[in-house]
Each structure stands twice: as structure tokens, then as C-alpha cells.
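Example record used in the benchmark description.
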Amino acid sequence: MSQARALAASKTGLAEKNTVSMEPTRFTWTGTFAWAAASTSPSARRADVFSSFSYAAGVMAQSPNGKNLHFGIREHAMGAIVNGLSLSKVRAFGATFFIFSDYQRPAIRLSALMELPTIFVFTHDAMGDGEDGPTHQPVEQLASMRAIPGLVTLRPGDANEVVEAYRYVMQLRHQPAVLALSRQPLPTLDRSRYAPASGVARGAYVLADAP
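Model output (C-alpha cells):
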């Protein structure tokens, strides 16, 4: 069972996993979110990343009660609407490729100025993603997100860090957060050998002492 499916199926949901496996962190996020959605009813907004965030039915004319809004390639509008939902006390997130955070930046910056607990999820976080060419390869985007005052920026390194990032982000009440997730499979570190992933909440932590 993959890390994401294990999280979605587990009764404890957010328990730390020690199984060594390979999985993109975007899939772990989907599994964690699906588990949480069963009890908290969050709402998702997606800009052309259907395969990465298929956890619930979409809002369509024939199914107006869905939880996903499909924005297409409209990242700025998505960010602005997610901010509006946060103002309405709805815990919503928007998701797209990391490179397109450039289009969303004004809305992200406003969420920090307004102290909204908005969540911005970005996939395909690495410069190594070459299938779409250099126009889709984020180089300076991570540094630019970290430079925005009042914005929490997290880039989980394995499945357990994704879970801890979700746990931390959902406790925020007056700060927006960015999650940068991978397209490539990453190894899930054996936490029986390394430090617990709860260190994510501190911003950085020591995995293991040098020999």
C-alpha cells in the first residue's frame, strides 16, 4: 500500500510511518487531505492539476454540492477567490504547478497582508521537471515565496514531513501557507533511524548527528 493510501485508510490517519517507500509528496498530500476531508469538510480549488488532487467531486451544473472548483488556467482568480473564502471562514486551498505561482503572487501577498489562513499548494517543485520544457521549471519561485513577509513556506522532504506540514498548517489562524510538493517519487525516511518529522513545525531540524 502506498503512503498516501495508507494514510487515507488508517484509523489514526496522521500517525507517523516508518515503512521505507518511494512516493511523490503531492500524492501523500492527497491521501492526507482525503483522510481529513472525511471529518473536516475542507474545500479545494484547482487550476488545471486534476490528476494531483482528485479527492472529491467537482462543482458542476449537475452536481452543485461538490467540493472542487475547476478554474482551468486562471491562477490569479483562484488565489483571489480562495482568499475570499478564507474571509468567509471557509478553510479552502488552491492548487497548481509551482511555476504558476508567478501569476498568483499578488493574491498570495494580499493573503499575508490580510493575515488570512489561506493554503496555497504547489506541485512540480523541482528544476528537474523537464517534460514541459524550461517554461515549467521553477527556479526562483521557492526563494520568492520565502521572501514574502508573513507567509509560511514549507517544502516537505518525504511523506512523513507532508503529514506534519499539514498538521502545522491547519493550526494556523492568522497566516497563509505555501506547500511546495514534488512530482518525482521521494524516499520515505525510516523514522526509527532518524529524528521524528514533527521537527517540521520548527522550520528545520537535525535528521541525525554526524558520525
